[in-house]
Predict the 3D structure of the following.
Amino acid sequence: MDAYRVLIAIVAITVLMVTLIVFILVRKISIKQKRSIDLLYQKYIEFKPEVKSLIELANAYWSLEKKLGDYENELSDNNVRRLKSSVRKIKSYLDESNIEVNDYSGRQFNEGMNVEIVGRKVDKKVKTPIIDEVMSPAILYRGELVQKTKVIITVKKEK
């Protein structure tokens, strides 16, 4: 009986030590290496059809929200309230499903941003490059980028 308890104690200590060693090794991976691994994983990640549908819904939500802002003055107050209520419900569903939609319109552009530039405009009034127009939003699922935003930037006219 005592030999059995000693064996269990040895196994428990061994498992604890292995867990500690794995934890220490994992913590030694630098943030940069972790990001590289995450980006590599993103390229090969397979989504369930439900997630693909949520991504499509997120794009539709973004488009609807954008168009609602454009046509808000042309609609009656009652219709605007109804549409905004529907948009809020869609947004709530996306939030519950861990989907985040990001629109970078009007933000300052820098070369380190994770965006796909699909066009450039030149304007002598612009001091720093800005994101002038978003063609499609950035979409994150559980904090991971699943759709890169496509943008048109405006840059300063070179002399």
Remarks:
- Strands lie at 99-102, 115-123, 130-136, 138-141, 144-147, 149-156.
- Residues 2-27 form the longest helix (26 residues).
- The chain has four helices and six strands.
